[in-house]
Specification:
Strand content: 35-45%
CATH class of one domain: Mainly Beta
CATH architecture of one domain: Sandwich
Number of strands: 32
CATH topology of one domain: Immunoglobulin-like
Protein name: Nectin-2 isoform X2
Distance between the termini: 153 Å
Keywords: ATP-binding, Cell adhesion, Cell junction, Cell membrane, Disulfide bond, Glycoprotein, Membrane, Nucleotide-binding, Phosphoprotein, Repeat, Signal, Transmembrane, Transmembrane helix
Number of helices: 5
Subcellular location: Cell junction, Adherens junction; Cell membrane
CATH superfamily of one domain: Immunoglobulins
Pfam family, one: V-set
Radius of gyration: 61 Å
Main location: other
Length: 479
Protein backbone atom coordinates (compact mmCIF):
# COMPACT_ATOMS: atom_id res chain seq x y z
CA UNK A 1 0.00 0.00 0.00
CA UNK A 2 2.80 2.37 0.95
CA UNK A 3 4.76 1.52 -2.20
CA UNK A 4 1.69 2.25 -4.38
CA UNK A 5 1.29 5.75 -2.96
CA UNK A 6 4.86 6.79 -3.62
CA UNK A 7 4.47 7.07 -7.46
CA UNK A 8 1.39 9.26 -6.99
CA UNK A 9 3.24 11.58 -4.65
CA UNK A 10 6.13 11.94 -7.02
CA UNK A 11 3.77 12.65 -9.90
CA UNK A 12 2.00 15.40 -7.96
CA UNK A 13 5.25 17.05 -7.01
CA UNK A 14 6.49 16.89 -10.61
CA UNK A 15 3.29 18.46 -11.94
CA UNK A 16 3.47 21.25 -9.37
CA UNK A 17 7.03 22.08 -10.33
CA UNK A 18 6.05 22.04 -14.01
CA UNK A 19 3.18 24.41 -13.33
CA UNK A 20 5.53 26.88 -11.60
CA UNK A 21 7.95 26.74 -14.50
CA UNK A 22 5.16 27.32 -17.01
CA UNK A 23 3.77 30.20 -14.95
CA UNK A 24 7.16 31.86 -14.85
CA UNK A 25 7.03 32.09 -18.66
CA UNK A 26 4.16 34.66 -18.28
CA UNK A 27 5.49 37.95 -16.93
CA UNK A 28 3.18 40.32 -15.02
CA UNK A 29 3.31 42.81 -12.12
CA UNK A 30 1.90 41.16 -9.05
CA UNK A 31 0.43 44.48 -7.86
CA UNK A 32 -0.55 47.59 -9.80
CA UNK A 33 -1.84 50.80 -8.24
CA UNK A 34 -4.21 53.05 -10.11
CA UNK A 35 -5.97 56.28 -9.21
CA UNK A 36 -9.65 56.91 -9.53
CA UNK A 37 -10.49 58.57 -12.84
CA UNK A 38 -7.01 58.04 -14.24
CA UNK A 39 -5.54 55.50 -16.68
CA UNK A 40 -3.86 52.30 -15.50
CA UNK A 41 -1.72 49.79 -17.41
CA UNK A 42 -1.54 46.05 -16.59
CA UNK A 43 1.59 44.56 -18.24
CA UNK A 44 1.54 40.90 -19.43
CA UNK A 45 4.02 39.06 -21.72
CA UNK A 46 4.84 35.43 -22.56
CA UNK A 47 8.22 34.01 -23.46
CA UNK A 48 8.20 31.74 -26.55
CA UNK A 49 10.41 28.72 -25.81
CA UNK A 50 10.82 27.41 -29.36
CA UNK A 51 9.55 27.38 -32.94
CA UNK A 52 7.16 24.55 -32.20
CA UNK A 53 5.37 26.68 -29.53
CA UNK A 54 2.21 28.35 -30.82
CA UNK A 55 -0.14 30.84 -29.06
CA UNK A 56 -3.74 30.41 -30.14
CA UNK A 57 -5.53 32.92 -27.84
CA UNK A 58 -4.99 35.55 -25.07
CA UNK A 59 -7.60 36.20 -22.36
CA UNK A 60 -7.83 38.56 -19.37
CA UNK A 61 -10.09 37.21 -16.63
CA UNK A 62 -11.27 39.03 -13.49
CA UNK A 63 -12.53 37.36 -10.35
CA UNK A 64 -15.79 39.04 -9.31
CA UNK A 65 -17.66 37.74 -6.28
CA UNK A 66 -16.00 34.36 -6.52
CA UNK A 67 -16.82 34.03 -10.23
CA UNK A 68 -14.49 34.38 -13.20
CA UNK A 69 -15.52 36.90 -15.85
CA UNK A 70 -13.78 37.54 -19.15
CA UNK A 71 -12.56 41.13 -19.48
CA UNK A 72 -10.68 41.08 -22.79
CA UNK A 73 -10.08 38.37 -25.46
CA UNK A 74 -7.66 38.37 -28.39
CA UNK A 75 -8.09 35.67 -31.09
CA UNK A 76 -5.86 35.59 -34.18
CA UNK A 77 -8.90 35.02 -36.44
CA UNK A 78 -11.79 36.72 -34.64
CA UNK A 79 -9.78 39.66 -33.40
CA UNK A 80 -10.24 41.49 -30.06
CA UNK A 81 -13.36 41.62 -27.88
CA UNK A 82 -14.28 42.98 -24.45
CA UNK A 83 -17.11 40.93 -22.99
CA UNK A 84 -17.35 42.82 -19.66
CA UNK A 85 -17.95 46.19 -21.38
CA UNK A 86 -19.04 45.52 -24.95
CA UNK A 87 -19.90 49.07 -25.90
CA UNK A 88 -17.23 50.83 -23.87
CA UNK A 89 -13.81 51.84 -25.04
CA UNK A 90 -12.39 52.16 -21.52
CA UNK A 91 -10.64 48.79 -21.77
CA UNK A 92 -8.30 47.81 -24.61
CA UNK A 93 -5.15 45.91 -25.48
CA UNK A 94 -2.11 48.11 -25.70
CA UNK A 95 -0.80 46.38 -28.89
CA UNK A 96 -2.11 43.89 -31.43
CA UNK A 97 0.06 40.95 -30.44
CA UNK A 98 -0.43 37.39 -29.14
CA UNK A 99 2.74 37.46 -27.05
CA UNK A 100 2.22 40.94 -25.52
CA UNK A 101 -1.17 41.07 -23.81
CA UNK A 102 -0.68 44.37 -21.91
CA UNK A 103 -4.10 45.73 -20.92
CA UNK A 104 -5.04 49.45 -20.63
CA UNK A 105 -7.98 50.68 -18.55
CA UNK A 106 -9.06 54.33 -18.98
CA UNK A 107 -11.04 56.43 -16.48
CA UNK A 108 -10.46 53.99 -13.69
CA UNK A 109 -13.45 53.17 -11.51
CA UNK A 110 -13.52 51.88 -7.97
CA UNK A 111 -15.29 48.77 -9.35
CA UNK A 112 -12.21 48.04 -11.48
CA UNK A 113 -10.28 47.03 -8.37
CA UNK A 114 -9.66 43.29 -8.05
CA UNK A 115 -7.54 40.31 -9.16
CA UNK A 116 -6.82 39.89 -12.88
CA UNK A 117 -5.41 36.79 -14.60
CA UNK A 118 -3.51 36.97 -17.90
CA UNK A 119 -3.87 33.57 -19.72
CA UNK A 120 -2.20 32.31 -22.89
CA UNK A 121 -3.57 29.25 -24.78
CA UNK A 122 -0.49 27.58 -26.30
CA UNK A 123 0.39 24.46 -28.20
CA UNK A 124 1.75 22.03 -27.17
CA UNK A 125 2.12 23.36 -23.56
CA UNK A 126 -1.55 24.23 -23.02
CA UNK A 127 -2.70 27.21 -20.96
CA UNK A 128 -0.09 29.39 -19.29
CA UNK A 129 -1.12 32.23 -16.92
CA UNK A 130 -0.14 34.60 -14.15
CA UNK A 131 -2.13 36.98 -11.93
CA UNK A 132 -1.92 40.63 -10.91
CA UNK A 133 -3.79 42.61 -8.26
CA UNK A 134 -5.20 46.02 -9.22
CA UNK A 135 -5.55 48.49 -6.34
CA UNK A 136 -7.55 51.63 -6.98
CA UNK A 137 -6.73 54.69 -4.89
CA UNK A 138 -8.90 57.77 -4.68
CA UNK A 139 -7.18 61.06 -3.96
CA UNK A 140 -9.43 62.91 -1.51
CA UNK A 141 -10.65 66.44 -1.94
CA UNK A 142 -10.06 68.34 1.31
CA UNK A 143 -11.09 71.69 2.76
CA UNK A 144 -11.43 73.42 6.14
CA UNK A 145 -13.45 76.36 7.40
CA UNK A 146 -14.47 78.14 10.58
CA UNK A 147 -17.96 77.83 12.00
CA UNK A 148 -19.45 81.10 13.25
CA UNK A 149 -20.62 80.63 16.82
CA UNK A 150 -21.55 83.03 19.60
CA UNK A 151 -19.39 83.21 22.66
CA UNK A 152 -20.66 81.00 25.48
CA UNK A 153 -19.57 78.66 28.25
CA UNK A 154 -20.64 75.51 26.41
CA UNK A 155 -18.19 73.52 24.28
CA UNK A 156 -19.22 73.30 20.64
CA UNK A 157 -17.68 72.89 17.17
CA UNK A 158 -15.88 76.03 16.01
CA UNK A 159 -14.23 74.63 12.85
CA UNK A 160 -14.67 71.68 10.49
CA UNK A 161 -12.22 69.92 8.16
CA UNK A 162 -13.53 67.58 5.43
CA UNK A 163 -11.57 65.08 3.34
CA UNK A 164 -14.09 63.75 0.80
CA UNK A 165 -14.10 60.72 -1.53
CA UNK A 166 -10.83 59.20 -0.47
CA UNK A 167 -9.72 55.60 -0.88
CA UNK A 168 -8.51 54.48 1.60
CA UNK A 169 -9.83 56.95 4.21
CA UNK A 170 -7.60 59.97 4.78
CA UNK A 171 -6.04 60.75 8.16
CA UNK A 172 -7.34 64.13 9.34
CA UNK A 173 -5.94 65.90 12.43
CA UNK A 174 -5.84 69.40 13.95
CA UNK A 175 -2.81 71.44 14.99
CA UNK A 176 -3.71 74.02 17.62
CA UNK A 177 -2.38 75.80 20.73
CA UNK A 178 -5.89 76.17 22.11
CA UNK A 179 -7.42 73.89 24.68
CA UNK A 180 -9.79 72.07 22.32
CA UNK A 181 -10.47 68.56 21.07
CA UNK A 182 -11.70 66.92 17.86
CA UNK A 183 -14.43 64.51 16.82
CA UNK A 184 -14.14 62.36 13.66
CA UNK A 185 -16.89 60.90 11.50
CA UNK A 186 -16.52 58.64 8.41
CA UNK A 187 -19.07 58.25 5.59
CA UNK A 188 -18.83 55.31 3.16
CA UNK A 189 -19.84 56.45 -0.31
CA UNK A 190 -21.61 54.28 -2.91
CA UNK A 191 -18.58 54.25 -5.23
CA UNK A 192 -16.37 52.72 -2.54
CA UNK A 193 -14.72 55.93 -1.41
CA UNK A 194 -14.79 57.31 2.13
CA UNK A 195 -15.43 60.86 3.36
CA UNK A 196 -13.79 61.89 6.67
CA UNK A 197 -15.17 64.82 8.67
CA UNK A 198 -13.21 66.18 11.64
CA UNK A 199 -14.75 68.91 13.81
CA UNK A 200 -12.74 71.02 16.24
CA UNK A 201 -14.61 71.57 19.50
CA UNK A 202 -13.91 74.43 21.89
CA UNK A 203 -15.55 76.63 24.52
CA UNK A 204 -16.07 79.74 22.36
CA UNK A 205 -14.75 82.84 24.11
CA UNK A 206 -13.96 86.27 22.72
CA UNK A 207 -10.26 85.59 23.40
CA UNK A 208 -10.38 82.70 20.92
CA UNK A 209 -11.68 84.96 18.16
CA UNK A 210 -9.26 85.28 15.22
CA UNK A 211 -7.00 82.58 16.67
CA UNK A 212 -5.56 80.28 14.00
CA UNK A 213 -5.68 76.50 13.93
CA UNK A 214 -4.47 74.18 11.12
CA UNK A 215 -6.11 71.09 9.63
CA UNK A 216 -3.66 68.40 8.42
CA UNK A 217 -4.66 65.76 5.84
CA UNK A 218 -2.49 62.70 5.13
CA UNK A 219 -3.20 60.16 2.36
CA UNK A 220 -1.25 57.63 0.30
CA UNK A 221 -2.42 59.34 -2.87
CA UNK A 222 -0.92 62.67 -1.76
CA UNK A 223 2.77 63.43 -2.36
CA UNK A 224 2.89 65.26 0.97
CA UNK A 225 0.66 66.26 3.86
CA UNK A 226 -1.84 68.97 3.03
CA UNK A 227 -2.43 71.78 5.52
CA UNK A 228 -5.43 74.10 5.74
CA UNK A 229 -5.16 77.08 8.14
CA UNK A 230 -8.39 78.26 9.72
CA UNK A 231 -9.04 81.53 11.57
CA UNK A 232 -11.71 81.11 14.20
CA UNK A 233 -14.72 83.42 14.19
CA UNK A 234 -16.31 83.80 17.61
CA UNK A 235 -19.18 86.29 17.64
CA UNK A 236 -19.49 88.57 20.67
CA UNK A 237 -21.21 91.82 21.58
CA UNK A 238 -19.34 95.15 21.39
CA UNK A 239 -16.94 96.33 24.09
CA UNK A 240 -17.33 100.11 24.29
CA UNK A 241 -15.17 102.91 25.75
CA UNK A 242 -15.19 106.71 25.45
CA UNK A 243 -11.84 108.46 24.96
CA UNK A 244 -10.86 112.11 24.72
CA UNK A 245 -11.83 113.63 28.07
CA UNK A 246 -8.68 115.07 29.70
CA UNK A 247 -10.31 116.65 32.75
CA UNK A 248 -9.58 120.17 31.48
CA UNK A 249 -12.79 121.24 29.77
CA UNK A 250 -13.21 124.94 30.55
CA UNK A 251 -15.47 127.68 29.31
CA UNK A 252 -14.85 128.93 25.75
CA UNK A 253 -12.68 125.94 24.87
CA UNK A 254 -13.41 124.94 21.27
CA UNK A 255 -11.29 121.86 20.60
CA UNK A 256 -12.93 119.30 22.88
CA UNK A 257 -13.66 115.90 21.31
CA UNK A 258 -15.00 112.57 22.52
CA UNK A 259 -14.39 109.33 20.60
CA UNK A 260 -16.52 106.22 21.08
CA UNK A 261 -14.25 103.22 20.47
CA UNK A 262 -15.74 99.74 20.26
CA UNK A 263 -14.57 96.31 19.25
CA UNK A 264 -16.57 93.18 18.65
CA UNK A 265 -17.29 90.44 16.15
CA UNK A 266 -18.65 91.50 13.80
CA UNK A 267 -17.11 94.98 14.03
CA UNK A 268 -19.65 97.52 15.32
CA UNK A 269 -20.60 100.09 12.71
CA UNK A 270 -23.69 101.63 14.31
CA UNK A 271 -23.06 104.31 16.99
CA UNK A 272 -25.46 106.67 18.75
CA UNK A 273 -24.85 109.52 21.24
CA UNK A 274 -27.17 110.73 23.99
CA UNK A 275 -26.91 112.33 27.42
CA UNK A 276 -28.25 111.35 30.79
CA UNK A 277 -30.61 114.36 30.52
CA UNK A 278 -31.99 113.43 27.12
CA UNK A 279 -31.06 115.09 23.79
CA UNK A 280 -27.59 116.39 23.00
CA UNK A 281 -26.70 120.06 23.64
CA UNK A 282 -26.76 122.39 20.66
CA UNK A 283 -23.05 123.12 21.02
CA UNK A 284 -22.02 119.57 20.03
CA UNK A 285 -21.86 117.86 16.64
CA UNK A 286 -21.93 114.09 16.09
CA UNK A 287 -19.93 112.44 13.30
CA UNK A 288 -20.32 108.70 13.69
CA UNK A 289 -18.01 107.60 16.48
CA UNK A 290 -16.89 111.17 17.23
CA UNK A 291 -18.59 113.92 19.18
CA UNK A 292 -17.25 117.45 18.57
CA UNK A 293 -17.87 120.34 20.96
CA UNK A 294 -17.88 123.61 19.03
CA UNK A 295 -17.47 125.72 22.17
CA UNK A 296 -17.51 124.45 25.72
CA UNK A 297 -20.25 125.92 27.87
CA UNK A 298 -22.26 124.80 30.86
CA UNK A 299 -24.63 122.83 28.63
CA UNK A 300 -21.98 120.13 28.17
CA UNK A 301 -21.56 119.82 31.93
CA UNK A 302 -23.40 116.50 31.77
CA UNK A 303 -22.96 112.77 31.20
CA UNK A 304 -22.52 111.65 27.60
CA UNK A 305 -23.64 108.14 26.62
CA UNK A 306 -22.38 106.22 23.56
CA UNK A 307 -24.11 103.06 22.35
CA UNK A 308 -22.47 100.64 19.87
CA UNK A 309 -24.43 97.93 18.02
CA UNK A 310 -23.58 94.80 16.03
CA UNK A 311 -25.72 91.80 15.13
CA UNK A 312 -24.90 90.12 18.42
CA UNK A 313 -26.10 92.91 20.70
CA UNK A 314 -26.07 96.55 21.87
CA UNK A 315 -23.70 97.87 24.53
CA UNK A 316 -23.41 101.42 25.91
CA UNK A 317 -21.00 103.31 28.15
CA UNK A 318 -20.92 106.82 29.61
CA UNK A 319 -18.51 109.66 30.38
CA UNK A 320 -19.09 112.38 33.00
CA UNK A 321 -17.94 115.87 31.89
CA UNK A 322 -16.96 118.59 34.38
CA UNK A 323 -16.83 122.11 32.91
CA UNK A 324 -14.41 124.48 34.71
CA UNK A 325 -14.35 128.26 34.79
CA UNK A 326 -10.61 128.46 34.15
CA UNK A 327 -8.21 125.99 32.54
CA UNK A 328 -6.18 123.77 34.84
CA UNK A 329 -2.47 124.52 34.83
CA UNK A 330 -0.37 121.79 33.46
CA UNK A 331 0.96 119.74 36.30
CA UNK A 332 3.64 118.37 34.10
CA UNK A 333 5.39 121.76 34.01
CA UNK A 334 5.28 122.09 37.80
CA UNK A 335 6.57 118.60 38.21
CA UNK A 336 9.33 119.32 35.69
CA UNK A 337 10.33 122.50 37.49
CA UNK A 338 10.34 120.73 40.86
CA UNK A 339 12.43 117.89 39.49
CA UNK A 340 14.85 120.38 37.92
CA UNK A 341 15.18 122.25 41.22
CA UNK A 342 15.91 119.07 43.13
CA UNK A 343 18.54 117.98 40.64
CA UNK A 344 20.14 121.45 40.65
CA UNK A 345 20.23 121.50 44.45
CA UNK A 346 21.89 118.11 44.58
CA UNK A 347 24.53 119.21 42.08
CA UNK A 348 25.19 122.42 44.01
CA UNK A 349 25.65 120.50 47.27
CA UNK A 350 28.00 118.09 45.55
CA UNK A 351 30.15 120.93 44.18
CA UNK A 352 30.21 122.66 47.58
CA UNK A 353 31.27 119.43 49.28
CA UNK A 354 34.13 118.97 46.82
CA UNK A 355 35.35 122.54 47.41
CA UNK A 356 35.26 122.14 51.21
CA UNK A 357 37.11 118.84 50.93
CA UNK A 358 40.00 120.37 48.96
CA UNK A 359 40.22 123.38 51.32
CA UNK A 360 40.50 121.13 54.38
CA UNK A 361 43.01 118.93 52.57
CA UNK A 362 45.27 121.91 51.89
CA UNK A 363 45.03 123.15 55.48
CA UNK A 364 45.82 119.75 57.01
CA UNK A 365 48.26 117.98 54.70
CA UNK A 366 49.12 115.47 57.44
CA UNK A 367 45.71 113.84 57.00
CA UNK A 368 46.77 112.40 53.65
CA UNK A 369 50.30 111.37 54.59
CA UNK A 370 49.55 108.39 56.80
CA UNK A 371 49.65 107.76 60.56
CA UNK A 372 52.19 109.33 62.91
CA UNK A 373 54.75 107.28 64.83
CA UNK A 374 55.48 109.10 68.13
CA UNK A 375 58.74 107.22 68.67
CA UNK A 376 60.29 107.93 65.27
CA UNK A 377 58.56 111.31 64.85
CA UNK A 378 57.64 110.16 61.34
CA UNK A 379 54.40 109.38 59.54
CA UNK A 380 53.40 105.98 58.14
CA UNK A 381 54.87 106.80 54.72
CA UNK A 382 58.32 107.59 56.16
CA UNK A 383 58.11 111.40 56.10
CA UNK A 384 59.09 113.47 59.11
CA UNK A 385 56.52 115.22 61.24
CA UNK A 386 55.96 118.88 60.36
CA UNK A 387 57.48 121.27 62.86
CA UNK A 388 54.98 122.86 65.23
CA UNK A 389 55.42 125.53 67.87
CA UNK A 390 53.54 125.92 71.09
CA UNK A 391 53.99 129.38 72.50
CA UNK A 392 51.33 129.08 75.20
CA UNK A 393 52.21 126.16 77.42
CA UNK A 394 55.86 125.34 76.72
CA UNK A 395 57.38 128.84 76.48
CA UNK A 396 57.83 129.54 80.13
CA UNK A 397 60.62 131.79 81.62
CA UNK A 398 63.72 130.03 82.79
CA UNK A 399 64.81 130.55 86.39
CA UNK A 400 68.42 131.12 87.37
CA UNK A 401 70.31 128.00 88.33
CA UNK A 402 72.29 129.70 91.18
CA UNK A 403 71.20 131.05 94.49
CA UNK A 404 68.35 128.64 95.02
CA UNK A 405 67.52 126.61 98.04
CA UNK A 406 67.33 122.84 97.90
CA UNK A 407 63.60 123.04 98.41
CA UNK A 408 63.38 125.31 95.37
CA UNK A 409 65.56 122.92 93.42
CA UNK A 410 63.19 120.09 94.29
CA UNK A 411 60.21 122.21 93.22
CA UNK A 412 61.99 123.05 90.01
CA UNK A 413 62.70 119.38 89.40
CA UNK A 414 59.04 118.53 89.98
CA UNK A 415 58.08 121.30 87.62
CA UNK A 416 60.38 120.01 84.93
CA UNK A 417 59.17 116.42 85.44
CA UNK A 418 55.57 117.52 84.94
CA UNK A 419 56.63 119.46 81.90
CA UNK A 420 58.33 116.38 80.47
CA UNK A 421 55.20 114.32 81.18
CA UNK A 422 53.09 116.86 79.32
CA UNK A 423 55.48 116.67 76.41
CA UNK A 424 55.30 112.89 76.39
CA UNK A 425 51.48 113.04 76.43
CA UNK A 426 50.50 116.34 74.85
CA UNK A 427 46.89 117.47 74.73
CA UNK A 428 44.91 116.85 71.59
CA UNK A 429 46.12 118.97 68.68
CA UNK A 430 49.78 119.24 69.70
CA UNK A 431 52.58 117.26 68.17
CA UNK A 432 54.37 114.97 70.65
CA UNK A 433 57.95 115.68 71.66
CA UNK A 434 60.23 112.91 72.89
CA UNK A 435 63.68 114.26 72.33
CA UNK A 436 65.02 114.18 75.94
CA UNK A 437 68.54 115.00 74.80
CA UNK A 438 67.31 118.42 73.74
CA UNK A 439 65.67 118.90 77.15
CA UNK A 440 68.92 118.06 78.91
CA UNK A 441 70.71 120.51 76.64
CA UNK A 442 68.14 123.11 77.57
CA UNK A 443 68.76 122.40 81.27
CA UNK A 444 72.52 122.84 80.78
CA UNK A 445 71.97 126.17 79.10
CA UNK A 446 69.91 127.46 82.05
CA UNK A 447 72.80 128.63 84.28
CA UNK A 448 74.53 130.37 81.43
CA UNK A 449 71.60 132.60 80.56
CA UNK A 450 71.37 135.92 82.32
CA UNK A 451 68.15 137.72 82.09
CA UNK A 452 68.00 141.50 82.26
CA UNK A 453 65.37 143.94 81.28
CA UNK A 454 65.67 145.02 77.70
CA UNK A 455 65.80 148.76 77.24
CA UNK A 456 63.99 148.37 73.98
CA UNK A 457 61.04 146.59 75.60
CA UNK A 458 61.72 143.07 74.31
CA UNK A 459 60.78 140.15 76.48
CA UNK A 460 63.63 137.69 76.69
CA UNK A 461 61.82 135.29 78.94
CA UNK A 462 61.37 133.09 75.92
CA UNK A 463 64.90 133.42 74.62
CA UNK A 464 68.10 131.52 75.34
CA UNK A 465 71.72 132.28 74.57
CA UNK A 466 73.86 129.69 72.78
CA UNK A 467 77.57 129.23 73.47
CA UNK A 468 78.37 131.61 70.65
CA UNK A 469 76.33 134.35 72.34
CA UNK A 470 73.27 134.25 70.02
CA UNK A 471 69.78 134.51 71.39
CA UNK A 472 67.41 131.61 70.39
CA UNK A 473 63.84 130.81 71.20
CA UNK A 474 63.05 128.27 73.81
CA UNK A 475 60.60 126.67 71.51
CA UNK A 476 63.22 126.45 68.82
CA UNK A 477 65.34 124.36 71.12
CA UNK A 478 62.56 121.80 71.35
CA UNK A 479 62.15 121.75 67.66
Amino acid sequence: MGSARRPCAWASLLWGCLSVVLAQQVTVKHEVTGYLGKRVVLPCNIAVTGPEMKVSQVTWVKEVGGRRQNVAVHHPTHGQSYPMEKNSRRIRFAVNSLTDATLVIEHLLMSDEGTYSCEFATYPNGNELNTTNLIVLAKPTSSAEAMEVKSSNVEQPVAVCTSANGKPPARVTWQSKLNGNSSIKQINNSDGTVTVINRYNLIPTKEANEQQIICLVEHVALPQTESFPVQLSILYAPEVAIDGYDGNWYLTRNDATLVCSARGNPTPIDFSWTTSNGPLPKSVEVQGQRLFVKKVDYSVNTTFICQATNRVGQVSTQQIILVRDQPVKSQSRNVGALAGGIVGGILALAVLGIIVFFILRRRHPRASKGSFDPKTRAFGNGTAQPQTHDFTELDRPLKPATGRKPEEDEDEDDYREEEREERRHPPYGYAPRHREDEEERFDQLGPILRFSPDPHGYDYDDMESQHDGSIISKTAVYV
